Every structure is written in structure tokens, then in C-alpha cells.
Amino acid sequence: MKQFELKNGNKIPALGLGTSGLRGEECTTVVKQALELGYRHIDTADMYGNHRAIAEALNESDVERNELFITSKIQSQDLEYKQLLKSAARLLTELDIKYFDLLLIHWPNPDIPVEESLKAMQELKEDGRAINIGVSNFTIPLLKEALEHHPDLVTVNQVEFHPTLYQKNLLDFAFKNDVILTAYSPLAQGEVFNNSVLKDLGEKYDKTPAQLALRWLIEKDIVAIPKASSKAHLKNNLDVFDWNFPVDAAREMELLDQNNRLIDPGYPDFD
Ligand SMILES: NC(=O)c1ccc[n+]([C@@H]2O[C@H](COP(=O)([O-])OP(=O)(O)OC[C@H]3O[C@@H](n4cnc5c(N)ncnc54)[C@H](OP(=O)(O)O)[C@@H]3O)[C@@H](O)[C@H]2O)c1
């Protein structure tokens, strides 16, 4: 599995399994299948309500803890210093792990200074309960603010990113500041399958639109976390590394941006 290096020298697998919408037994089955197929990076969040289901899959798997990369996220209402520490402890218990590989602020909260949340997250890092710290759904101004307070701490910003939502300015800003972007909804929640350019390119090169979209992101050093719930989809999405990315596909996919934001952040200054 290809990995990207974070500014602290730690590595993050370029592809992970998104688990939003997966719950209970289905979630456990899908995560187990993913681990068997070779996934090592699992993305979850308090909000998804599936930590215990994921824990069951992790506990039943033979994969060693140190081979796994587990990301979870603190909800925006839990970002006050004390509450964040309390939530993080609960999430670790639910996931039945001793540390997060990556802990993110899920959504910014304008009523709680980011400095306060990051102070708590810094402590979690120092005491070994979070290996890496990051944010999610942060615009350029919000990311700038977070970096002003904690330039070394903030390593990742997880945002919506796919060929029809190509956030170039945010990507440039992140790179300049040594922050890795993780693309959520990398398949545009399934819309890539209706995109005629991706369908034509897929037919030409015997790839699915999902594979082209994921490879397009990985070529840009963006981590992708597609959600899938069947073995066939899991397998298809994992097969995005060992083939050449056609030059004309890369060129055509640069032109697909439609500012097609599927998840409304509820604030106006995104990119
Ligand atoms: N930080 C945030 O605020 C935030 C927000 C949204 C999402 N996320 C994260 O990002 C992850 C992915 O985003 P997402 O779930 O919104 O959407 P997505 O990954 O863009 O798309 C998922 C959809 O694509 C389908 N699919 C996946 N692989 C396929 C394949 N190879 N062929 C055909 N269909 C395929 C899935 O169907 P099946 O289920 O039938 O396989 C599902 O309907 C989430 O699960 C979550 O972990 C984070």
C-alpha cells in the first residue's frame, strides 16, 4: 500500500476505507472483508455510530495493531478542552484501542476557539493517545488560524474532494504548509459513475470511474477514503496502484471541476 509522509515523519496509507453509513453487523463484516483484502486504513467518526462494530472487526482480525491506521473524529459540540478529552477517552474505549493513528476535529465550531481544542489534542499526542492530529472541513482561513497556533501539530485536513470538486486553492495552501489533504466522498457519493467523461475513459482503459477518480487523487498526493459495502467494490477500489495512469485521462480529468459540493459546510468562504 502506497503511503504519504506527514510533516512529523509519520506515514499515512494513501487509501482507506470510509465507514460513514456502515453500522452494526454490516459494518463489522465490511471492515473484516476490507482487512482481508489488504486495507489497513479505516476512517470513522463519533458521528457515524459504528466504533463498536469496527472494534469487533479489528479484534477478530489477525492484522497487528501497528499495521493499522485508525482515524476518528471529535464532534463539533465536543471541542471544549475538557469535553474533548472526555470524548477522546470514550472513543478509544468504544474502538477498543489504546491510541488513534489520527484524531481530527470533525467540523469547526465558531463558538469554541480552535486553539482550545488543539491544546487538548496536543496533550493527547504527548501522552501517546493520538499519534497524529488534524482537522476536517477547514477552509483556508480556518486552516491558517489552526496553523498559527500549532504549526507542527496539524498534519491533515480532511475535506470533500473529487474530480467534480477540485479544490485547487485549498490544495495549494495545504501543500505550502505541509498539510496532507484527505479526500472524503472521493467518488462523489457514487456520482462519478454517471460522469460521461469518466465512463468513456473507463471503457477505453478498462478501469472503472471509481478507479480513475481514486487514482487521480493519489497522483496529487491526496489520501482517498472511499466507502464501499460489497466485496467487489472494496476490491475494485483497492486496485488503483499497479497500473500506469494514462496521460490523456489525467489531462481530461483536470477539466471536470464543476464546484460540485455535495456536503454543505454551512459557511460561505469555502475555497
Ligand atoms: N469529514 C467529513 O465531514 C466527512 C464527510 C463525508 C464523508 N466522510 C468520509 O468519507 C468516506 C467516503 O465518502 P462517502 O461515503 O460520502 O462517499 P464515496 O466514498 O464518494 O461514495 C460511496 C458510494 O460509492 C459506491 N461505491 C464505492 N465503490 C464503488 C465501486 N467500486 N463501484 C461502484 N460503486 C461504488 C458505494 O456503494 P456501496 O456502499 O454499495 O459499495 C457508495 O454508494 C465516508 O464513508 C467517511 O468515512 C467524511
Automatic annotation (TrEMBL):
Pfam family, one: Aldo_ket_red
Entries under SUPFAM superfamilies matching the protein: NAD(P)-linked oxidoreductase
Molecular function per GO: oxidoreductase activity, acting on the CH-OH group of donors, NAD or NADP as acceptor
Keywords, alphabetical: NADP, Oxidoreductase
Organism listed in the record: Halanaerobium saccharolyticum
Record protein name field: Diketogulonate reductase-like aldo/keto reductase
Entry-linked InterPro entries: AKR (IPR020471), NAD(P)_OxRdtase_dom_sf (IPR036812), NADP_OxRdtase_dom (IPR023210)
Active site: Y48 (proton donor)
PANTHER family the record matches: 2,5-DIKETO-D-GLUCONIC ACID REDUCTASE, NADP-DEPENDENT OXIDOREDUCTASE DOMAIN-CONTAINING PROTEIN
Family affiliation: Belongs to the aldo/keto reductase family.
